[in-house]
Every structure is written in structure tokens, then in C-alpha cells.
Amino acid sequence: VAPTTPVCEVPSSAMTGTVVQMSCKETEGSPPSEYQWYKNGVALLEKTGTGSARAANITYTMNKKSGTLLFNTVTKNDTGEYYCEASNGIGLSRNCPVKRMQV
């Protein structure tokens, strides 16, 4: 079953240095969807261990299975427009509406 449009939870504002968790979920897709987050239209990289992620200055953890995007400490650089895409290889992937977070 193709995924439906996911529901995204993105805070509209956050204080610098705080923990922010965004979530993305859809329940119709079978097999279960995987989730990809985008910031300002660019796919966010999945953080895998150390090395390359640290070099890229990644401050978040993205879980493609659960749809969560977790920032341990947000910075002004994390301000932007976020959305999430659900896909399971069947039918079209679906995006939630873009939401802006101001840090």
C-alpha cells in the first residue's frame, strides 16, 4: 500500500542551545514507510557514526524508520524550512507541508 501524506511536527521557534525533536509519521503505508527529512529543499544526511558526519558539522540525528529528527543543541544555523517525505517503494512518496523553524 502506498504511503499517505505524513503528519509532521516541527516547532515554529526554538531557543539556541535547546534540544529539539521533530517527528514525521504516516500509518497507511505497507510495508512501513521510511522517512527522509529535508531542510530548505535539501535532503538531510543520515548520521552514521563519527568521521564524515563530524566533518560535515552535523548537529542532528535522523532516524529513517521512526521519522524523528533530533537536534541535541540547535543553533541559528538550524533555522530554516523543514519537511519530511514518506516512501516505501510502492506508489509515489508523499511529503508533509513545509514548516519553518526559527532559532
UniProtKB/TrEMBL annotation:
It is a single-pass type I membrane protein. GO terms for cellular component: bicellular tight junction; cell surface; plasma membrane; protein complex involved in cell adhesion. Keywords: Cell junction, Cell membrane, Disulfide bond, Immunoglobulin domain, Membrane, Signal, Tight junction, Transmembrane, Transmembrane helix. InterPro entries: Ig-like_dom, Ig-like_dom_sf, Ig-like_fold, Ig_sub, Ig_sub2, JAM2. PROSITE patterns: IG_LIKE. One of its GO terms (biological process) is leukocyte cell-cell adhesion. It is found in: Cell junction, Tight junction; Cell membrane. It holds the Pfam family Ig_3. Residues 3-103 form the Ig-like domain. It comes from the Eukaryota. Transmembrane segments: none annotated. Belongs to the immunoglobulin superfamily. This is JAM2 protein. It comes from Aegithalos caudatus (Long-tailed tit). The lineage of its organism: Eukaryota, Metazoa, Chordata, Craniata, Vertebrata. The gene is Jam2.
